TrEMBL record:
The active site is at H274 (proton acceptor). FMN binds at Q176, T204, K250, S272, D308, G309, G310, V311, R312, G331, R332. Keywords: Flavoprotein, FMN, Oxidoreductase, Signal. This is FMN-dependent dehydrogenase. Residues 41-381 form the FMN hydroxy acid dehydrogenase domain. GO terms for molecular function: FMN binding; oxidoreductase activity. PROSITE patterns: FMN_HYDROXY_ACID_DH_1 (PS00557), FMN_HYDROXY_ACID_DH_2 (PS51349). Its cofactor is FMN.
Length: 385
């Protein structure tokens, strides 16, 4: 018997022990080795979204970088968000005409037209990476015609952010909110949001209790939301009566809650575990999307479903779209890209658009709207588990 056969029983254990890689080794350490600490490499040297993390980690001071990077507790959910996509292999189809794939990226989100099925997720404190803070997200999203959802705890005020939109108000923004129990304040906030021409309210429902952030606690940069908050479906219905805007619950993590969202008249739901920053052990959006698909794929047609967490590659986006997710959000990659200002954010958007198109092409998808679950083998192959 060949001696390597003797090792077969130990193979699963060996694979399971494969170390976690925050940034997969694709040669950036060697290629950009001469980048002095505290400086950014040339933007042209950034070839994929994980590279922005590499650049930001060397450029930003450690506490600011930690605020962006951190996850809850042991960061198992943060890691799982990144690793979940690679547990499922693609099923490429050959001999398919994919020459028009790029023209099929545009989509609608709640009826608004965008050039691609991904968006900038709401992340607080954009000013830690760049003095123009969230202005860069508005400008880059506007130039590339993708959706940007400013965070409630942004560095700039909602008014300063909205002022960056083109004067003809052609750019669509949604607004993320955290709410206090004071209805008068909530009403005033909703009125302000409507007055700015914002098209939807994204209500974060995954943070009813404080985040447990070990990495951040070392630098005193933990969650800004430190109280227990009253968030129920009754409360959600009350909010719907306080605004004419659609209110999208963000942080849905089970098929039961998707069904409840439909029952309570939600226009859309946003699958997210807050980038693994809130509850360690919470599932990645891909796992939740698969749970929904396995229970009832029609749910993706009954309500628009968005998802974020750990998306770094075009193929990650494709796996979510294949299950029926309408649009996919990214948080940290854009926050790190903002170290370069508007050009960095725009490059991140362009890199991802290109990766989605070429990955779909190689997967044999002629039209991105035609992607379905048959393009992925939905069997956990055990890698990185
Ligand atoms: C620095 C940072 C700040 C965030 N702030 C908020 C926030 O204020 N409100 C919210 O709903 N989500 C917030 N999130 C979560 C993001 O909206 C999003 O769900 C998450 O970043 C997606 O995971 P990804 O970073 O792996 O793409 C934040 C995430 C990061 C990284």
């Amino acid at each position: 018997m060949h001696s390597s056969f003797l090792l077969l029983p130990f193979l699963p254990a060996a694979l399971a022990a494969r170390p976690f890689l925050n940034e997969p080794t694709t040669g950036i350490d060697e290629a950009l080795a001469n980048t002095p600490a505290g400086t950014l490499p040339d933007l042209q040297g950034i070839v994929g979204l994980p590279d922005f993390d590499w650049a930001a980690r060397r450029y930003m001071n450690v506490s600011d970088y930690t605020y962006y990077r951190n996850g809850a507790a042991g960061e198992w959910s943060y890691r799982n968000n990144l690793e979940a996509y690679n547990r499922f292999r693609l099923r490429p189809r050959m001999m398919v005409d994919v020459t028009n794939i790029e023209s099929t990226l545009p989509t609608t989100i709640l009826g608004h037209n965008f050039s691609a099925p991904f968006f900038i997720s709401p992340c607080s404190r954009g000013g830690l990476a760049h003095p123009d803070a969230e202005k860069n997200f508005v400008r880059a999203a506007g130039a590339e015609n993708i959706l940007y959802i400013p965070a409630f705890f942004a560095t700039l005020s909602m008014e300063e952010i909205a002022a960056e939109k083109p004067s003809n108000d052609s750019q669509t923004l949604f607004q993320q909110v955290y709410l206090s129990s004071n209805d008068t304040e909530t009403q005033q906030l909703f009125d302000r949001i409507e007055g700015l021409g914002t098209k939807a309210i994204v209500f974060t429902v995954d943070s009813a209790a404080d985040g447990n952030r070990h990495r951040a606690a070392r630098y005193g940069v933990g969650s800004a939301d430190s109280s227990y908050t009253y968030i129920t479906w009754d409360y959600y219905n009350k909010l719907q009566n306080m605004t004419s805007l659609p209110v999208i619950p963000k942080g849905i993590q089970s098929v039961e809650d998707v069904k409840l969202a439909i029952e309570h008249g939600a226009p859309a739901v946003f699958l997210s575990n807050h980038g693994g920053r809130q509850l360690d052990g919470s599932p990645s959006a891909l796992e939740v999307a698969l749970e929904i698909y396995e229970e009832d794929p029609q749910l993706f047609r009954q309500i628009e479903i968005y998802a974020d967490g750990g998306v770094r590659y075009g193929a990650d986006v494709l796996k979510l779209l294949a299950l029926g997710v309408r649009a996919v959000g990214l948080g940290r990659p854009f926050m790190y890209a903002n170290t370069y200002g508007v050009e960095g954010v725009q490059r991140a958007i362009q890199l991802l658009k290109r990766e989605i198109a070429i990955d779909a092409g190689n997967l044999g998808v002629p039209d991105l709207k035609a992607i379905d679950a048959s393009y992925v083998k939905w069997v956990n192959n055990g890698w990185y588990s």
